[in-house]
Design brief:
Blueprint lengths: L6 H6 L13 E3 L14 H23 L5 H7 L4 H29 L1 H20 L4 H15 L1 H13 L2 H32 L3 H21 L5 H16 L3 E3 L7 H18 L1 H21 L2 H5 L9 H7 L1 H14 L1 H13 L13 H20 L4 H29 L4 H46 L2 H15 L5
Parallel strand pairs: 1-2
Helix pairs in contact: 2-4, 2-7, 2-8, 2-9, 3-4, 4-5, 4-6, 4-7, 4-11, 4-19, 5-6, 5-7, 5-9, 7-8, 7-19, 8-14, 8-15, 8-16, 8-18, 11-12, 11-19, 12-18, 12-19, 12-20, 15-18, 17-18, 17-19, 18-19
């Protein structure tokens, strides 16, 4: 408890302003070395939290793509078409994006831990009716619901990391966490291919039931609340019970509950549509995810027994590891440099840290994404050796991580107290486009061929490639011109 605001409180709400009044209540806040402050937790304690939410962030995207090797088997078993089965992926991915619009602001109202445990418990349970689906309508409906609840790890992971880590150390940790939403769709087809080939498509969802339940139990046992206002609210209640009198949290929002909740629910969309930089980066991420899922859903057609390369189901699953290799190379060698450059630029400018200092490395992705897509498009079109085509996906994965990591860190630094809402703003656009575009991509590839079809995505990403450079030089002016009160 303190009579003023600790230094850390200002950093957590760097772009937000508060006015002091004549409120005579004693202020409850963290002190500089407060052990209950998540940023002062031991590193092991922080990493346990990161590990649990990272696994959540792996499992929901894993579920989005794990059954793709069994699309034909599912269609035959449920007496439907392959296109209808792909609709189950579309529903899942779209609701994976819609979920954060609701779950992120709820975590900024009720706390992170409660949302994680409730939503992921429901996600785990929903895998059971999915495994038992008697028809494609049930499959699509239950998959959509599970996408919504499974999005909790994606919705609140960035906010949780912001709760626990200072800006100078955040990017490296966030890079490993961000592997989850990207590795999930990459590893899913490989694991799913093995299960489909040796058991049946229904075992994909029994497998998900088991590992999601294990993760949920670990969350109940080891996950700690990290959202500062929720922790301080608990401390305030203890003081009022033990000492009597009235207390308030530093910078407390005293509006009625339903007013605060309504404001929270509007926050992600307000950020998305009033902040040009967030909107532009969200469009870029959406194109990346749309491209990724379009390629993933067509790998079977390209590499499978009826495609250009005649691979078995298991071999097709191994192709998905190409982008995964790029992810690991980037997280191991490039992502830690985001913090290095951020700290160096801050020191160069007299210790003044700006969100734009996160963006320089995004230029690597701005080059690699279109180059790797053109490479993949035309090597597949002319049936070049499979190794050459797969090598291009390594560079695609590398570029994808650099863009997503720098963009997400930019969101966190710009809207620290409401980092979850800012990330949700980008996630909704990303997932909706990522879910819908693959439905159109197959027809595009059939009509235009893989050369010009995939090149369409390459040209789109090329058009957005100057964005990191422009926002590095002009981002601060844009943020000031479009400042909002959240």
């Amino acid at each position: 408890m303190s009579d003023g605001t600790a230094n850390g409180a200002h950093e957590r709400s760097a772009l937000l302003s508060f006015t002091e009044d004549d409120d005579s209540r004693k202020i409850v806040d963290f002190t500089d070395w407060d052990e209950e402050d998540p940023r002062n937790w031991p590193k092991s304690r922080k990493l346990i939290n990161v590990g649990i939410i990272a696994l959540m962030a792996v499992l929901s995207p894993l579920a989005s793509s794990m059954f793709t090797p069994g699309i034909g088997q599912i269609a035959q078993d449920l007496n439907t078409s392959g296109e209808m089965v792909v609709g189950a992926t579309t529903g899942f991915v779209v609701f994976l994006g819609i979920g954060p619009l609701i779950l992120a602001p709820l975590s900024e109202t009720f706390g992170r831990r409660k949302l994680y445990l409730i939503c992921f418990s429901i996600f785990a349970l929903l895998q059971i009716p999915t495994a038992l689906s008697p028809n494609v309508a049930t499959l699509i409906a239950v998959r959509a619901l599970s996408g919504f609840f499974g999005s909790v790890g994606i919705a609140n992971g960035g906010g949780t990391i912001s709760d626990m880590f200072h800006p100078s150390e955040r990017a490296g940790i966030f890079g490993w966490y961000l592997l989850g939403p990207l590795l999930g769709p990459t590893l899913g087809p490989l694991l799913g291919g093995l299960l489909v080939q040796h058991l049946s498509w229904r075992w994909v969802f029994w497998f998900l039931t088991i590992i999601c339940t294990i993760n949920t139990v670990l969350g109940f046992l080891f996950l700690k609340e990290s959202y500062a206002p929720t922790i301080l609210e608990g401390r305030k209640q203890k003081y009022e019970e033990s000492e009597g009198g009235k207390f308030r949290i530093a910078n407390q929002d005293d509006r009625p509950f339903w007013t605060k909740l309504g404001s929270s629910m509007q926050r992600p969309l307000r950020i998305l549509f009033t902040q040009p930089i967030v909107l532009t980066m969200a469009i870029w991420q959406a194109i990346l995810f749309g491209t990724t899922y379009s390629l993933y859903t067509n790998f079977e057609s390209i590499y499978g027994s009826k495609g250009y390369y005649g691979f078995s189901t298991t071999q097709v699953g191994l192709v998905y590891l190409g982008p995964g290799v790029g992810f690991f190379i980037c997280v191991w060698f490039i992502v830690p440099k985001i913090d290095t450059i951020y700290n160096r630029l801050s020191k160069k400018h007299g210790g003044e840290a700006k969100p734009e200092y996160r963006l320089p490395l995004a230029n690597i992705g701005a080059v690699l994404i279109p180059v790797s897509l053109f490479w993949f498009a035309w090597t597949v079109e002319y049936h070049v050796h499979w190794a050459v085509t797969v090598l291009s996906t390594v560079f695609f994965g590398l570029g994808q991580i650099t863009i997503l990591n720098t963009a997400q860190n930019y969101y966190i630094d710009s809207f620290q107290k409401y980092a979850a809402s800012a990330i949700a703003a980008g996630a909704v656009f990303r997932s909706i486009v990522g879910g819908i575009v693959p439905l159109l991509a197959t027809q595009l590839f059939q009509q235009a061929g893989y050369g010009w079809g995939v090149s369409t995505f390459a040209f789109t990403s090329l058009a957005l490639s100057p964005a990191p450079l422009l926002f590095y030089y002009y981002g601060e002016r844009i943020r000031e011109a479009f400042a909002i009160d959240l």
